[in-house]
Amino acid sequence: MSKYQIAVVVGSLRRDSFNRMLANAIVKLAPPEFSFKQAQIGDLPLYNQDDDTHQVESVKRLKAEIAASQGLLFVTPEYNRSIPGVLKNAIDHASRPYGQSSWAGKPAGVLGASIGAIGTSMAQQHLRNVLAFLDVPTLGQPEAFIQAKEGLFDQAGNIGTGSREFLQGWMDSYVDWVKKHAA
Ligand SMILES: Cc1cc2nc3c(=O)[nH]c(=O)nc-3n(C[C@H](O)[C@H](O)[C@H](O)COP(=O)(O)O)c2cc1C
Protein backbone atom coordinates (compact mmCIF):
# COMPACT_ATOMS: atom_id res chain seq x y z
CA MET A 1 0.00 0.00 0.00
CA SER A 2 1.20 3.53 -0.77
CA LYS A 3 2.52 5.57 2.10
CA TYR A 4 0.17 8.46 1.38
CA GLN A 5 -3.44 7.77 0.51
CA ILE A 6 -5.31 10.75 -0.87
CA ALA A 7 -9.08 11.13 -0.97
CA VAL A 8 -10.05 13.00 -4.14
CA VAL A 9 -13.32 14.93 -4.13
CA VAL A 10 -14.60 16.04 -7.53
CA GLY A 11 -17.29 18.72 -7.41
CA SER A 12 -19.04 17.67 -10.63
CA LEU A 13 -21.32 14.70 -11.27
CA ARG A 14 -21.37 15.32 -15.03
CA ARG A 15 -20.50 12.25 -17.11
CA ASP A 16 -17.87 14.04 -19.22
CA SER A 17 -16.72 16.39 -16.47
CA PHE A 18 -13.54 18.33 -17.24
CA ASN A 19 -12.83 18.40 -13.53
CA ARG A 20 -12.97 14.64 -13.25
CA MET A 21 -10.70 14.39 -16.28
CA LEU A 22 -8.34 16.83 -14.58
CA ALA A 23 -8.44 14.79 -11.36
CA ASN A 24 -7.72 11.58 -13.29
CA ALA A 25 -4.86 13.17 -15.20
CA ILE A 26 -3.08 15.10 -12.48
CA VAL A 27 -2.76 12.12 -10.15
CA LYS A 28 -0.50 10.54 -12.77
CA LEU A 29 2.03 13.29 -12.01
CA ALA A 30 2.41 12.16 -8.39
CA PRO A 31 5.24 9.92 -7.12
CA PRO A 32 4.57 6.19 -6.51
CA GLU A 33 4.38 6.63 -2.73
CA PHE A 34 1.09 8.48 -3.32
CA SER A 35 -2.19 6.75 -4.22
CA PHE A 36 -5.47 8.48 -4.99
CA LYS A 37 -9.08 7.36 -4.67
CA GLN A 38 -12.06 9.39 -5.80
CA ALA A 39 -14.73 9.61 -3.14
CA GLN A 40 -18.25 8.97 -4.39
CA ILE A 41 -20.49 11.89 -3.49
CA GLY A 42 -23.31 11.54 -6.02
CA ASP A 43 -25.28 9.07 -3.93
CA LEU A 44 -25.27 11.12 -0.73
CA PRO A 45 -28.70 12.28 0.44
CA LEU A 46 -29.32 15.97 0.96
CA TYR A 47 -27.82 16.85 4.30
CA ASN A 48 -30.36 16.97 7.13
CA GLN A 49 -29.19 17.60 10.69
CA ASP A 50 -31.94 15.29 12.00
CA ASP A 51 -29.94 12.39 10.55
CA ASP A 52 -26.73 13.11 12.47
CA THR A 53 -27.52 10.39 15.00
CA HIS A 54 -28.11 7.75 12.31
CA GLN A 55 -26.01 8.57 9.26
CA VAL A 56 -26.74 6.42 6.21
CA GLU A 57 -24.18 4.01 4.75
CA SER A 58 -23.06 6.38 1.97
CA VAL A 59 -22.21 9.04 4.55
CA LYS A 60 -20.39 6.54 6.77
CA ARG A 61 -18.44 5.38 3.71
CA LEU A 62 -17.38 8.94 2.85
CA LYS A 63 -16.33 9.63 6.42
CA ALA A 64 -14.35 6.37 6.58
CA GLU A 65 -12.53 7.14 3.32
CA ILE A 66 -11.53 10.57 4.54
CA ALA A 67 -10.48 9.23 7.92
CA ALA A 68 -8.25 6.64 6.23
CA SER A 69 -6.52 9.25 4.06
CA GLN A 70 -3.39 11.29 4.71
CA GLY A 71 -4.53 14.11 2.46
CA LEU A 72 -7.32 15.57 0.37
CA LEU A 73 -7.53 16.76 -3.22
CA PHE A 74 -10.50 18.89 -4.25
CA VAL A 75 -11.08 19.38 -7.97
CA THR A 76 -14.15 21.45 -8.58
CA PRO A 77 -16.01 23.49 -11.14
CA GLU A 78 -17.45 26.89 -10.32
CA TYR A 79 -21.24 27.14 -10.28
CA ASN A 80 -22.65 30.65 -10.21
CA ARG A 81 -19.46 32.02 -8.68
CA SER A 82 -19.31 29.46 -5.87
CA ILE A 83 -18.86 25.75 -5.28
CA PRO A 84 -21.46 23.30 -6.59
CA GLY A 85 -24.14 22.24 -4.12
CA VAL A 86 -23.10 18.58 -4.40
CA LEU A 87 -19.65 19.45 -3.09
CA LYS A 88 -20.95 21.53 -0.20
CA ASN A 89 -23.40 18.75 0.61
CA ALA A 90 -20.55 16.23 0.84
CA ILE A 91 -18.46 18.58 2.97
CA ASP A 92 -21.35 19.18 5.36
CA HIS A 93 -22.09 15.46 5.70
CA ALA A 94 -18.53 14.51 6.60
CA SER A 95 -18.25 17.42 9.04
CA ARG A 96 -20.85 15.87 11.31
CA PRO A 97 -21.92 14.69 13.90
CA TYR A 98 -20.78 17.78 15.81
CA GLY A 99 -17.31 17.21 17.19
CA GLN A 100 -16.67 14.27 14.86
CA SER A 101 -15.68 16.01 11.65
CA SER A 102 -13.64 13.79 9.34
CA TRP A 103 -11.88 16.73 7.70
CA ALA A 104 -9.91 18.29 10.54
CA GLY A 105 -6.15 18.38 10.06
CA LYS A 106 -6.08 16.71 6.64
CA PRO A 107 -3.80 18.66 4.28
CA ALA A 108 -5.57 19.64 1.06
CA GLY A 109 -4.99 20.87 -2.44
CA VAL A 110 -7.60 22.81 -4.39
CA LEU A 111 -7.86 22.76 -8.17
CA GLY A 112 -10.54 23.66 -10.66
CA ALA A 113 -11.23 23.74 -14.36
CA SER A 114 -13.69 25.96 -16.16
CA ILE A 115 -14.44 26.95 -19.70
CA GLY A 116 -13.95 30.57 -18.59
CA ALA A 117 -10.45 32.07 -18.35
CA ILE A 118 -10.56 32.94 -14.64
CA GLY A 119 -13.24 30.38 -13.92
CA THR A 120 -13.14 28.57 -10.58
CA SER A 121 -11.18 31.35 -8.88
CA MET A 122 -14.23 32.41 -6.88
CA ALA A 123 -15.32 28.83 -6.27
CA GLN A 124 -11.84 27.98 -5.01
CA GLN A 125 -11.83 31.00 -2.72
CA HIS A 126 -15.22 29.99 -1.29
CA LEU A 127 -13.97 26.45 -0.83
CA ARG A 128 -10.86 27.71 0.99
CA ASN A 129 -13.13 29.64 3.32
CA VAL A 130 -15.12 26.51 4.19
CA LEU A 131 -11.98 24.41 4.59
CA ALA A 132 -10.37 27.00 6.87
CA PHE A 133 -13.30 26.71 9.24
CA LEU A 134 -13.01 22.92 9.13
CA ASP A 135 -9.34 23.15 10.16
CA VAL A 136 -8.08 21.81 6.83
CA PRO A 137 -4.62 23.24 6.00
CA THR A 138 -4.81 24.16 2.33
CA LEU A 139 -1.90 24.61 -0.09
CA GLY A 140 -1.88 28.34 -0.91
CA GLN A 141 0.57 28.49 -3.82
CA PRO A 142 0.68 27.84 -6.63
CA GLU A 143 -2.96 28.55 -7.33
CA ALA A 144 -4.37 26.62 -10.28
CA PHE A 145 -7.25 28.09 -12.24
CA ILE A 146 -7.32 25.79 -15.22
CA GLN A 147 -9.08 26.75 -18.42
CA ALA A 148 -10.70 23.73 -20.07
CA LYS A 149 -9.75 24.29 -23.70
CA GLU A 150 -8.43 22.31 -26.64
CA GLY A 151 -5.14 20.63 -25.77
CA LEU A 152 -5.57 20.57 -21.99
CA PHE A 153 -5.62 16.78 -22.27
CA ASP A 154 -3.97 14.55 -24.83
CA GLN A 155 -5.70 11.63 -26.57
CA ALA A 156 -4.80 9.28 -23.71
CA GLY A 157 -6.31 11.60 -21.08
CA ASN A 158 -2.96 12.84 -19.79
CA ILE A 159 -2.26 16.52 -19.19
CA GLY A 160 -1.35 18.04 -22.55
CA THR A 161 2.13 19.39 -23.19
CA GLY A 162 1.10 23.06 -22.83
CA SER A 163 0.03 22.65 -19.19
CA ARG A 164 2.23 19.78 -18.08
CA GLU A 165 5.14 21.76 -16.64
CA PHE A 166 2.84 24.03 -14.64
CA LEU A 167 0.73 21.17 -13.28
CA GLN A 168 3.81 19.06 -12.51
CA GLY A 169 5.05 22.00 -10.43
CA TRP A 170 1.66 22.18 -8.73
CA MET A 171 1.77 18.46 -7.93
CA ASP A 172 5.32 18.69 -6.59
CA SER A 173 4.23 21.48 -4.21
CA TYR A 174 1.17 19.48 -3.19
CA VAL A 175 3.27 16.39 -2.45
CA ASP A 176 5.59 18.47 -0.22
CA TRP A 177 2.55 20.00 1.50
CA VAL A 178 1.01 16.63 2.32
CA LYS A 179 4.31 15.21 3.54
CA LYS A 180 4.87 18.23 5.78
CA HIS A 181 1.46 17.96 7.41
CA ALA A 182 1.17 14.18 7.50
CA ALA A 183 4.58 13.85 9.23
C1 LIG B 1 -25.20 25.70 -12.86
C2 LIG B 1 -23.94 26.16 -13.55
C3 LIG B 1 -23.31 27.34 -13.18
C4 LIG B 1 -22.10 27.71 -13.74
N1 LIG B 1 -21.45 28.83 -13.29
C5 LIG B 1 -20.20 29.09 -13.71
C6 LIG B 1 -19.42 30.11 -13.07
O1 LIG B 1 -19.85 30.79 -12.15
N2 LIG B 1 -18.15 30.31 -13.52
C7 LIG B 1 -17.61 29.57 -14.56
O2 LIG B 1 -16.47 29.78 -14.92
N3 LIG B 1 -18.33 28.61 -15.17
C8 LIG B 1 -19.60 28.34 -14.75
N4 LIG B 1 -20.31 27.32 -15.33
C9 LIG B 1 -19.74 26.60 -16.48
C10 LIG B 1 -18.83 25.49 -16.02
O3 LIG B 1 -17.51 26.00 -15.91
C11 LIG B 1 -18.83 24.34 -17.05
O4 LIG B 1 -20.14 23.84 -17.15
C12 LIG B 1 -17.87 23.24 -16.66
O5 LIG B 1 -17.76 22.35 -17.74
C13 LIG B 1 -18.34 22.49 -15.41
O6 LIG B 1 -17.35 21.61 -14.97
P1 LIG B 1 -17.37 20.04 -15.34
O7 LIG B 1 -17.01 19.94 -16.80
O8 LIG B 1 -16.33 19.45 -14.46
O9 LIG B 1 -18.74 19.50 -15.06
C14 LIG B 1 -21.54 26.94 -14.78
C15 LIG B 1 -22.19 25.75 -15.19
C16 LIG B 1 -23.37 25.38 -14.58
C17 LIG B 1 -24.01 24.08 -15.01
Features:
binds flavin mononucleotide, single chain, 5-stranded parallel β-sheet, 15% strand, 5 helices, alpha/beta
Task: Give a verbal description of the structure.
- The chain has 183 residues and is of the alpha/beta class.
- Helix content is 36%, strand content 15%.
- The protein is built from five helices and five strands; from the N terminus they run βαβαβαβαβα.
- It has helices at 18-26, 57-67, 85-94, 121-133, 161-182; strands at 4-10, 34-38, 71-75, 108-114, 145-147.
- Strands 2-1-3-4-5 form a five-stranded parallel β-sheet.
- β4, α4 (121-133) and β5 form a beta-alpha-beta unit.
- The longest helix is centred in the last third of the chain and has 22 residues, at 161-182.
- It is globular and about 50 Å long.
- The two termini are 17 Å apart.
- 34% of the residues are buried.
- The model has no long low-confidence stretch (mean pLDDT 97).
- Bound molecules: flavin mononucleotide.
- The site of flavin mononucleotide has 14 residues, from α1.
Task: Give a quick precis of the structure.
With 183 residues, the chain is α/β, with parallel strands linked by helices. The protein is built from five helices and five strands, in the order βαβαβαβαβα.
Unreliable stretches (pLDDT < 50, length at least 5) are none
Q: Which sheet architecture does the biggest sheet show?
A: 5 strands, parallel
Strand sequence of the main sheet, in spatial order?
2-1-3-4-5
Shape: globular
Q: Count the beta strands.
A: 5
* Share of helix, binned: 25-40%
Averaged pLDDT: 97
Would you list the SSEs in sequence order as H and E?
Answer: EHEHEHEHEH
How far apart are the first and last residues' alpha carbons, in Å? 17 Å
Based on helices, strands and strand pairing, what is the structural class?
alpha/beta
> What value does the Rg take, in angstroms?
16 Å
Helix count, DSSP H or I runs of 4 or more residues: 5
- List the ions, cofactors and other small molecules found in this model: flavin mononucleotide
Strand content: 5-15%
